[in-house]
Amino acid sequence: MKFDRSGVNALMEITSRPELVFVSGQGSWLEDHTGKRYLDFVQGWAVNSLGHCPPGVVKAINEQSARLINPSPAFYNEPSMELAKRLTGASCFDRIFFTNSGAEANEGAIKLARKWGRLHRKGAFKIITFDHSFHGRTLATMSASGKPGWDTIFAPQVDGFPKANLNDLDSVRALVDDQTVAIMLEPVQGEAGVIPATREFMRSLRKLADEKGLLLIVDEVQTGMGRTGKLFAYEHSGVTPDIMTLGKGIGGGVPLAALCAREAVSCFEHGDQGGTYNGNPLMTAAGVAVFDALTAPGFMQEVNARGQQLSEGLLALSAKWGMKGERGEGLLRALLLGRDDGGAIVEAARDWAPEGMLLNAPRADLLRFMPALNVTAEEINLMLKRLDDVIAEVRG
Ligand SMILES: *Cc1c(COP(=O)(O)O)cnc(C)c1O
């Protein structure tokens, strides 16, 4: 296939993309328009939890698309109820609202918290979020995010998202006032560079929330669905959040996300929340297939074993190249490069011949790894070996 310049020019230019078109994928491998293969440790930004085109998900989509694609959200459908039952059964939550993106799930979480504040906390509406956090690209979720510069691009912001510092309880406590209704955080800050909230911090936030009558909201769009070695990252600290959002890996690649809430917080009334595509059977059928794969016996043990292997391999690379170590949970990890050559490494890995490799550098001084959760030990070893070669080339 030829690279199509007129096609490129017909798209809005929203980011800089390399001059290649991916045409097919299988497991941890992608193939571009020239037939070149790439080992993929980005997986659509932690979206393809079972790799590219996993047979179980392909089958579920094929079968569901032949049966029923969308009866409208005004009616019940089987796959959405099946997936909701599975999610509530596996978590501390009682009610699910399906959305089409993580940002939309977070918008729902914000609306639900504000509604709850109106009903139970005299109209309290402020949600304490964190510096460097990422919650999405809608106006409210950009306002909730702590990404530098995001407060001004589309000003004025949505009001009511004071920012605290991650793992600093006093900075949270200092922001609580009569108008505060919730605290919202990622259990591991993903876009910020894979920075985990400590277990102690999570427990202290729960305590503070209980003390002050606030809701604890976890944005598990990136950390949920097995990514950190447990089905949900909040389980690591043993806290019980009031609201959780899921996205990315929940659909195995298709647009599916979810707002999950405990019964006492599920206070939407008819007309408060909805959406044309929300909970459609085609996407939720894919979600059921993903859920059943992640919860099959032995699956999470394997995720933890691969996470351990990746962690050790990255540590060895760090020692060899005089880097600053690695961090993360499960199969969401970062290598701290100690220099700002993350972009150069990502590019060199992609352009490597005859086979390329996809890596991600959310910040110039680190690489983030988000392989398929069913990545094999051999694929991890191959990635580590190639990364070593790439670093050797980039650092001369
Ligand atoms: C990716 C991400 C989002 C946004 O999800 P979209 O599906 O891109 O809207 C929100 N929160 C976190 C933690 C994320 O990683």
Detailed description of the structure:
36% of the residues lie in helices and 18% in strands. The chain has a seven-stranded mixed sheet with strand order 4-12-11-10-7-5-6, sandwiched between helices. A hairpin with a 2-residue loop joins strand 1 and strand 2. The structure holds pyridoxal-5'-phosphate (PLP). Pyridoxal-5'-phosphate binds next to helix 5.
In short:
Helices cover 36% and strands 18% of the residues.
Gap from first CA to last CA: 35 Å
Main pleated sheet: 7 strands, mixed
Radius of gyration: 21 Å
Ligands, ions, cofactors:
pyridoxal-5'-phosphate
Name of the CATH architecture of the domain at 55-294: 3-Layer(aba) Sandwich
**Residue-averaged pLDDT, rounded?**
97
Q: What is the CATH top level name of the domain at 55-294?
A: Alpha Beta
Strand order of the largest sheet: 4-12-11-10-7-5-6
Helix run count: 12
* Number of separate strands: 17
User: How much strand?
Assistant: 15-25%
Low-confidence stretches: none
Shape verdict: globular
CATH superfamily of the domain at 55-294: Type I PLP-dependent aspartate aminotransferase-like (Major domain)
Task: Give the helix proportion (percent range).
Answer: 25-40%
Class of secondary structure makeup: alpha/beta
